[in-house]
Prior knowledge:
single chain, alpha/beta, five-stranded parallel beta sheet, 7% strand
Amino acid sequence: MNATGFEPAPDQDPDTASAPGRIVLLTTSHRVAPGLLSWPAWQALHAADRVLCADGAHPQLPYLREAGIQVDETSPTAEELVAVCVGGHTVVVVATGEGEPVLTDGLARLAGSGRVQMPELELLPASYDLPGARLLDLVQVMDRIRAECPWSSQQTHKGLAKYGIEEAYELVEAIEEGDRDELREELGDVLLQVIFHSRIAEDDPDTPFSIDDVAGGIVAKLIHRHPHVFGDETATTPEEVKAHWLRTKAIEKQRTSVTEGIPLGQPGLALAAKLASRVRTAGLDVPVPHGEGIGYELLALAARAGAEGTDPETALRAAARAYRDAIREVEG
């Protein structure tokens, strides 16, 4: 046994001594529960002559050993690994989280030298990230920031409220400008607000909840409000889908007024449009009140825009951007 603790293969039969063998680099995702490996990965592990892992605390090791696979905790050099494959042996290297860059670089140098008969090299992903798996990274990063950052650890829901509004407006701007890179970034900033508030909520002494509770709640709501997807209802047009949504929502909320649930703190134009939309949806006959001043004129315009299928906030922002461009043109 050499200084690395890696014991090379014993002398081989002369007929097979020159066979170069095979090296399988087995990679796994930390976002998937350990032990949940692909069938080709399990086949490679059971068929291997040696299974090696440099990290004795690798989360996969207990499950591999439970499956009857002997794993040697060692970190051979590229030369040592190539030598142990001679004779047609297969060695599986269970990669650490960093992906074994020292070993793979060493193998690449040996292959490039042309002086060594290289074994067959295979990269075998044993587990794959599911869609949305990177959200687990975000939760972990946020948890550490909340625990270790002097600023983040002191934040409250109320203290962060203004950032939620700002990020929402920046998202809307990115959508309206059509900038895809900016849209991706702003979506991330909005997502951060959700994760941050959820992490703060975990620390509440009376009614704590987590991001899993938040996600579970919206999943249940979406399934319940889409009976045409997850149930026996039928909807073939957007209008029928909207009718399902409104009917289910009305049963859930049991509101006594169509105005319930409309945030009065939103911008005035959006507030006026939302009130008019609720009136139309409910089929109520409530004329827009008339009065003196620009406020009533704006209210009437907002109601008219909604009736014509136009969002007054979006329309006004588009006009404002045109006005901005005109100002810049005059400024030269």
